[in-house]
Amino acid sequence: MNKVILMGRLTRDPEVRYTQTNNTLVSSFSLAVNRRFVAQGQERQADFINVVAWSKLGEFCSKYFKKGQQVGVIGRIQTRSYDDAQGQKRYVTEVVAEEAYFADSKKADGDATNFENTFGTDVASSSEFSVSSDDDLPF
Q: Residue 96: inside a domain, yes or no?
């Protein structure tokens, strides 16, 4: 089974591009995910995880996700390789998003967009990752 569940903050706004073959939208972004434990006398460390979202989910992410927002992503790990401009083989490990959610208790700009009505519950749902200020989160 290949299933990943992440909650973290976007390190940058999602980037959007389209495939050359069939013009499919793909959105990519990076999540800073805090590690669960902090070594005594040290600052909390984070892992920076690359995420890609395709088609409608990619459109949703590019439209509503912004740098610094806390989001939840459910997906799968994927590895791939390619040759760079110098002919060197490069390896990439990333999370392919299958679901994406807002994880902040409320949107920072006050916009109460109901994305569930826009994209349907199979693309995004606000109920599974509701976070209140009383929750004991590791980050």
A: yes
Residue type, 36: R
Residue 62: Cβ within 10 Å count: 19
C-alpha Rg value of the chain to the nearest Å: 16
Give the CATH number for residue 111.
2.40.50.140
pTM value is: 0.72
Per the structure, the complete domain to which residue 64 belongs is given by 4-37+46-119
Q: How would you classify residue 110: left for phi > 0, otherwise alpha for psi between -120 and 50, otherwise beta?
A: left
Phi, psi of 80, deg, nearest 5: -155, 165
- Does pLDDT of 126 surpass 80? no
Q: What mean pLDDT comes out for the span 90-105?
A: 94
